[in-house]
Amino acid sequence: MAVDLARWQFAFVTINHFFFVPVTIGLAFLTALLQTAWHRSHKDEYLRLTRFFGTLLVINVAIGVVTGLVQEFQFGMNWSAYSRLVGNIFGAPLAMEGLAAFFLESTFLGLWLFGWDKLPRRVHLATIWAVSLGTVLSAAFIMAANSWMQHPVGYQMVNGKPQLNDVWALFTNPVFIWGYAKVLLASLVTGAAVMLAVSAWQLRRGVDKDVFIRSARLSLVVLLPAILFTMLVGDELGVIEARYQPMKIAAAEAQWTTCQPCSFSLFQIGGGNNDHTPTQIIEIPHLLSLLATNHWNGKVTGLTPLQNQYSQQYGPGNYVPNVFIQYWGMRVMAYLAVVVMLIALWGLWLIWRRKLATSRLFLWVAMWAVVLPFLMNTAGWLLTESGRQPWIVQGLMLTKNGISPTLSTTWIAISLGVFVLVYAVIATVDLLLMLKYSRKPLPPPRTGADEDRPVPAVQY
Amino acid sequence: MGTLIPFWFIVVAFFWTGFFILEGFDFGVGMLHSLVGRDDAGRRAAINTIGPLWDGNEVWLIVAAAAMFAAFPGWYATMFSAFNLALVLLLVALIARGLSFEYRGKRDAPHWRRTWDVSLTAGSVLAPFLIGVALGDLLHGLQINSSQDYTGSFWGLLQPYGLYTGVTLVLICALHGATFLRLKTTGDMHERAGQLARRIAPFTCAAVIGFAIWTHVSTGRGTFFLNPIELLAILAAIAALWLVYESRSGFAFAATTVTIASCIVTIFVDLYPNVMVSTTNKAYNLTAHNTASGDYTLKVMTVVAIILLPVVLVYQAWTYYVFRRRISSEEFQPQAPSAAAAPSAGAPAASDAAQPSASGPV
């Protein structure tokens, strides 16, 4: 019971946190691009867009920071046995993240926001790039830590406890390399989708069309390669996970028996943990073999033989993750990615035909498409994290053994209740403010004599 | 490589101390902003004295926690799980504060701004109080069993010494915030910050003297004389009191900085080599040695810290230099935003000094 509640709490605060993180990573980069465009071209449109999207960025960073505090604390709060056992490995990248990334991100965001009129233009431009670098570094360290839980490397067992003995192994872990690339690309997709949706709304309204067409174009030009590479990298990540976490991939296809070659089902009916023979609809031959092994006739070991193998290796127990979450998590992620790709192609075709600003149907679709990356990100993390279960660290420690041993169920229930309430308030306020500021008109253009004066700073 | 363990204990103490020096005045400004600013413009001015800085300052807390996690996982695990519910409260307080800064100015409605004023003040009082209770409990001791787990209840966390440490830290932060506001503002706000500092200072000074003596007695090392750092805390608090009444803004702020730093350092100095005391059995005390990471991890983290920490200190110091200008409430009077809305209005060569304020809320 306590373990279930603690897992609900972790999932709840982490999924919420990851609504804001990819927006921050993506928008920081795109805002830096806009400001660079202004710096190079001196075109006032780019300055106005920088200020406009910078405001949206800041609203999200505030929430990313405060929900990030919860992330940093909860390993010790609810998962102290886990922290005690693996802190000397898992804690190291977290401390590096604080020193290398959080300081950079928060300090330079302050400089960027409040420093418009106090820093030389070139230096001020550097501050937004420092913010972007901070967000990208931060993702690197936390992904190194997470990848270690998926595929532990760089340690030796000393008196039954894992001890770090090779820090480079954390950063050359193939799960890290591909997982990190995927997170960055997915963040770019998310940031671009937000920018596209806001621009689409503004274009439909029809004010400052000549300005918002620029941000719409920028977001589409970023979106298409970002989503394509996300899919390619995701495919390679699947192959790597199949190697180190075969349960994860077998569960993602609800594949109970070993197959060779293996087909991929588009849909299925049934197929939970108790249903070993789901009705699979529209099977594509060889596709699962290709996805999981990169080979036309690759072999995928089924859940039942894996379960038998793990029971022998680690002792009796249930080692099969939640098959329903795996199967649908993977499909929601993949299918929505195709939808996003099609929208991006459609948008680029309209740019080529010079009809982007006038196609009301596309603008309407682009506006609503903003929810897709958030669904994809959440589905992807459910696939990754739920697929690791019942392990908290693959092969090393079971989730049920990671919880704080003397923590009462009541305490966890209270803290879960508090976080649900607080996050509901945060999410509501953030959504309302994002909508309000997305619908604001652009800051007015600067004319004549203004252009030589410093841009006014931002204030609370 | 036994020397790296005390080194990392010092690093952790350094992050906690740095956190309180920097975020200490942020907490103080948060507590006092409604008193220093009589109207909305004054409150906004008060908040903007720390506007560009608070976020970077709060990272010191994250890094303090992360440094404990990496270097002393056993300490991090026991402390954070023992204080579970108290930390939930702390997180709520910090979330309330952070959101208040960002969101207060985002809507121009009195009830909206009053709501965030209240949440900023409450969060700013609660946060240092709870951290103070936690730090005090490390030293006073908690019910910890042989496997380093806390076995007490939530109420078991509320020890008299811990509570007193919490109150002391709230008072120091309030004074530290007042001396900071006096240093960073001009005009009527500068005056009011001075008045507030004079009202708070006697209580802070008394609390710190009591804290140093209680800490000295309760650590039970049997010596009569205070150790140098406890003595420094008392002297700095007295100096702060005197300088506040002498209206020496810069020196008063320096004195409150030393006061807050020496109080935190006192806790860690008197704690070592323990990191958490067990009231169940002395043999169960958590020490720096029985909670530390392996040599290799400590070596790696030492290299990382030696490379990165100086860089961080340099750019944070630079931030303080960039935003050194004093702020007055006149800059935030309601007519300012309308001037920004029509920046072309005449005066092409308007003085730079007056312009920066003309931006309005984001």
Structure notes:
- The complex is a heterodimer of chains A (460) and B (362).
- Chain A is mainly alpha-helical and 460 residues long.
- Chain A has helices at 2-41, 44-78, 80-114, 121-150, 167-172, 174-205, 209-244, 246-252, 287-293, 303-314, 323-352, 360-368, 371-386, 399-402, 409-438; strands spanning 155-158, 161-164, 264-269, 279-284, 391-393, 397-398.
- In chain A, strand 1 (155-158) and strand 2 (161-164) form a beta hairpin.
- Chain B has a two-stranded antiparallel ribbon with strand order 1-2.
- In chain B, helix 1 (4-36) runs antiparallel to helix 6 (110-140).
- The termini of chain B are far apart.
- The chains are: A mainly alpha (460), B mainly alpha (362).
- At the A-B interface, helix 2, helix 3 and helix 15 of A face helix 2, helix 3, helix 4, helix 5 and helix 12 of B.
Keywords:
heterodimer, A: 460 residues, mainly alpha, two-stranded antiparallel ribbon, 15 helices, 6 strands, B: 362 residues, 1% strand
Helix content bin of chain B: over 70%
Estimate the global geometry of chain A from the Cα principal axes.
globular
Could you describe the largest sheet of chain A, including whether it forms a barrel? 2 strands, antiparallel
Number of helices of chain B: 13
Q: Strand share of the residues of chain A?
A: 5-15%
Helix and strand sequence of chain A: HHHHEEHHHHEEHHHHHEEHH
Largest two-chain interface = A-B, 84 and 87 residues
Strand order of the largest sheet of chain A: 1-2
Radius of gyration of chain B: 22 Å
Identify the overall geometry of chain B: globular
Radius of gyration of chain A, in Å, reads 24 Å
